[in-house]
Design a protein that fits this description.
The chain is mostly helical. It has a domain at about 1-85. Helix content is about 85%, strand content about 0%. It has six helices and no strands. The chain has helices at about 5-30, 40-55, 55-60, 60-115, 115-140, 150-180. Helix 1 (about 5-30) packs antiparallel against helix 4 and helix 4 (about 60-115) runs antiparallel to helix 5. The two termini are about 40 Å apart.
Length: about 180
């Protein structure tokens, strides 16, 4: 395949992954999180619903307050389920990308080994170091083993560490160039 076509395909795939990641993240961020709201804020959901259904005219004040209390709990649980469903979708997308990338790395390694075994062994050492890094980040991240929170914490911690290393390398490289 020509270099231009390969570059175009790579850019399209990369931008598609970034677009979907941003889209899923925005989708999750738009969900209401009952854990971050006070009971009074949550009760506003039930009040809005009661007003739209005209329940103030059909019930006594005592019945309406009881309905609002019950409905507030129900709505809060529904929103929490929706939030965790959306978070799971985002995490599943991230896991798909990770598995897809791992498959590409294995395929590229196989191709490289076929062409140049010495370079393949050096590449394998780098992949091994990265795997050890990810396992260490996973072990030291918060959350129950195998849970979505553990995976999300691992992703955030790994991104933070790798971004910090990249920034330090960028600054360090600039300083070395400046000094020489």
């Amino acid at each position: 395949m020509e270099n231009n076509k390969l570059n175009l395909i790579t850019k399209i795939v990369t931008y598609s992954i970034v677009f979907l990641g941003i889209l899923f993240t925005l989708w999750v961020m738009q969900d209401d999180n009952p854990a971050e709201m006070s009971y009074e804020q949550q009760k506003q959901w039930a009040i809005v619903e009661a007003k739209s259904q005209g329940l103030a005219n059909e019930m006594t004040a005592t019945e309406l307050n009881a309905h609002l209390s019950n409905r507030t709990s129900e709505i809060s649980l529904e929103k929490e389920k929706t939030l965790w469903s959306d978070v799971s979708t985002l995490i599943n997308f991230s896991m798909f990308i990770i598995y897809f990338a791992a498959g590409l790395v294995i395929a590229a390694f196989g191709y490289l080994y076929f062409i140049d075994p010495k370079k393949a062994i050096r590449s394998l050492a780098g992949i091994g170091i990265f795997i050890v890094f990810m396992v260490l980040v996973y072990v030291f991240s918060e959350g129950d083993s195998g849970s979505d929170m553990k995976l999300a914490s691992t992703a955030i911690n790994a991104t933070t560490v790798l971004t910090s290393i990249a920034i330090l390398g960028w600054i360090g490289g600039s300083l070395v160039k400046f000094i020489k």
